[in-house]
Design a protein that fits this description.
- The chain is of the alpha+beta class.
- About 25% of the residues lie in helices and about 25% in strands.
- The strands form eight sheets. A six-stranded antiparallel β-sheet has the order 9-8-7-6-3-14, with no helix packed on it. A six-stranded mixed β-sheet has the order 25-26-27-28-30-29. It has a five-stranded antiparallel β-sheet with strand order 15-16-23-18-21, with no helix packed on it.
- A hairpin with a 4-residue loop joins strand 7 and strand 8 (about 115-120).
- The chain starts with 8 loop residues before the first strand and ends in a 15-residue tail after the last helix.
Length: about 625
């Protein structure tokens, strides 16, 4: 499970084609080593004089810059103490406080809870009680973070296998990770997840070049809560900057009491198919007051302003003014820009290479030429349609606002035309979902998605579904199946005249649809849900599997999947609980709990392995089997 591909590509052969994808549980490559003095860093963040991390003595939370999880001294089952990453909880907080003391040219790192120093032995851990193995550490600033290296070596602290889950071990590696140091002033302060609806409380004016910005929660924290892809944690500007252009920006209201601050970007964070310099954003760490820099690439200007919740005080709103550089592009803001103003912008900025349309929860960035070619879509209609689909996906996901964990995400999904990846690299992909964005390749989705929304926009429903998938129950083989739980729900909620893809006739003789193939599969004497070859038409395996998930939705109601999502948000799998076999058993057990029924026979009938331990756990819950055979539920 650790080293899966990070990119999802929808290679559209017909309206319901599937992607070639495995759900990621490791860092996106951009985040694995953002800046390290032990590795080549051609895209390092620019840091103005006086800005950036300050290495001081004191008590700190040491937080991964990639996962936003804390360095934690955790007692293992065998009684030993291991160093792992973990999210902040009141129960773990004491084990996450580290005292940083100056020693010679370096520092000592001391666990306040256990009274031992961080040391380097067979793996990174705490010293023996004797204190004889005390390690000296070199801590050097990297932009608004630091690298922590064993003094005299070229190895620094990193998260083993770049894992994202809690419980992943800390190791030393030549590709040292970045860490943020947050001073612990009051140990009783609650750092649990807080909803930061920054987009709704921010204003953007690309004509006056003035912006009032509130802080988002970092994309990594939101992704950990939702259990899937990262969405965008940056604000748009509606300004286009050309390579070599001088840019001057004034910032007021920016705090300097912690690592979280304002990063100005030319180009956006993205998950283009093939990472290359042309796709990487230029990043500048801003300071209070005047900031000046020269653009190293062409692109739109964005502002990443985040609050991790670990600062001494919550981040307040800031004001940003672009004094020099950048020219406006057609820039639509949902609920602010009128249709008359939009048409005027299209005429006034006719030579702008890009246009941007910004909604409360989504954003579109496409070439002006493509926008015109697609028929100049009405932004209000387009954004409203996408956000309506997102509200349906929220329903399936149990994002009903009943608690902080169950709030719809305040971050945006960024639909972006991909002019970076080549046709060959994308393997004729129509549309793809990945970190931060949904990619719209040239002359395909970028053109069709911008047309007036139709009832059969399965591709939009599907790719948005990938942004909602929870990876803890997305093992290889079901990624392109479970995503369509959201799509089928959207189809039903829209009341669209489009035929369900499960009714599509697909066998070679043209006689059976996918539901009938599912019936044929269930009648087989031997069935293996995890093996494509076990299905009557192996190439249709992902669709036949979908029948099982849809039977659960139809028999148990939409509330079933809402409850299942909530269970996983409250009890995400740890690194030690990962792995395909374990994930299948956990899914079976949690599905039974969410349904309040013993579904083990249902899953076994479908050929999903149910082991004795899972059956025993369901038995202890005293759940009864449903009165009807759910494999016979009509769809």
């Amino acid at each position: 499970m650790r080293w899966r591909s990070w990119l999802l590509i929808l290679a559209l052969c017909d309206a319901h084609a599937a992607s070639r994808y495995y759900a990621p549980v490791t860092f996106y490559p951009h985040d694995a080593v953002r800046i390290s003095r032990f590795a080549s860093t051609p895209g390092a963040m620019q840091v103005p004089y006086g800005a950036g991390a300050k290495v001081e003595e004191g008590e700190f939370y040491i937080v991964s810059n990639a996962s936003f999880k804390l360095l934690t001294a955790q007692v293992q089952r065998d009684g030993t103490i291991a160093l792992v990453q973990a999210k902040w909880t009141p129960e773990l907080a004491a084990s996450q406080i580290w005292t940083v003391d100056k020693e010679g040219s370096g520092f000592r790192l001391y666990s306040k809870l256990f009274g031992r120093y961080l040391t380097l032995g067979a793996r990174v851990g705490l010293e023996a009680a004797s204190g004889e193995a005390r390690q000296n550490w070199s801590i050097e600033a990297d932009a608004n973070a630091v690298t922590i290296a064993a003094t005299g070596t070229k190895t620094g602290l990193a998260i083993e296998h770049h894992a994202l889950r809690d419980g992943a071990y800390i190791e030393v590696n030549a590709q040292a990770g970045q860490w943020r140091l947050y001073k612990v002033g009051n140990e009783t302060v609650d750092h649990a997840y807080r909803t930061l609806d920054a987009g709704a409380r921010s204003t953007y004016d690309n004509v006056a070049k003035r912006y009032h910005l509130n802080a988002f929660a970092p994309d990594a924290i939101e992704a950990d809560r939702l259990g899937g892809f990262r969405w965008t944690d940056y604000h748009p500007s509606g300004l286009y900057v050309s390579k070599g252009e001088s840019v001057v920006i004034d910032v007021t209201g920016l705090s300097d009491d912690g690592p979280d601050g304002l990063v100005v970007m030319i180009g956006n964070k993205n998950g283009f198919y093939k990472r290359q310099p042309a796709g990487d954003p230029q990043m500048i760490l801003a300071t209070e007051g005047r900031n000046a820099f020269v653009a190293s690439r062409d692109g739109l200007l964005y502002f990443e302003y985040v609050d991790s919740g670990f600062n001494e005080r919550p981040r307040q709103s800031i004001d940003v003014s672009v004094r020099e550089g950048g020219r406006p592009v057609p820039f639509y803001i949902e609920g602010v820009t009128t249709s008359v103003e939009w048409r005027a912008m299209l005429q006034r900025y006719a030579d702008a290479p890009l246009i941007e349309m910004v909604g409360r929860r989504t954003m579109f960035t496409v070439a002006r030429a493509m926008y015109d070619k697609a028929g100049a879509a009405d932004p209000a209609t387009l954004l409203g349609y996408v956000e309506r689909i997102m509200s349906y996906h929220d329903e399936v996901s149990g994002l009903d606002g009943s608690s902080a964990l169950d709030m719809p995400s305040p971050l945006r999904v960024h639909f972006m035309q991909d002019a970076i990846s080549t046709h060959a690299e994308l393997q004729s992909a129509y549309m793809y979902a990945t970190y931060y964005m949904i990619g719209l390749p040239m002359n395909s989705a970028a053109e069709t998605v911008l047309k007036v929304p139709k009832a059969d926009q399965w591709g939009v429903w599907h790719e948005l579904g990938h942004m909602y998938q929870q990876w803890d129950w997305t093992w290889p083989g079901v990624t392109e199946t479970t995503v369509n739980i959201y799509s089928l729900h959207a189809l039903q909620r829209l009341g669209a005249p489009m035929m369900s893809p499960l009714l599509q006739v697909v066998d070679a003789r043209g006689r059976k649809n996918r539901l009938e193939l599912a019936g044929q599969y269930l009648a087989q004497p031997s069935r293996n849900f995890l093996d494509d070859a076990s299905f009557p038409v192996p190439s249709e395996a992902l669709w036949i599997r979908l029948v099982m998930y849809e039977q659960l939705r139809r028999a148990l109601g939409d509330g079933f999947y809402a409850r299942l999502h909530k269970l996983y948000r409250r009890q995400p799998l740890t690194e030690g609980e990962g792995g395909d076999r374990s994930e299948v058993q956990t899914f079976v057990l949690r599905a039974c709990v969410a349904a309040n029924f013993d579904l083990t026979d249902f899953f076994a009938r479908w050929g999903l392995p149910v082991d004795a331990a899972t059956r025993a756990a369901v038995g202890r819950a005293r759940l009864k089997a449903p009165e009807e055979d759910l494999t016979r539920v009509r769809i």
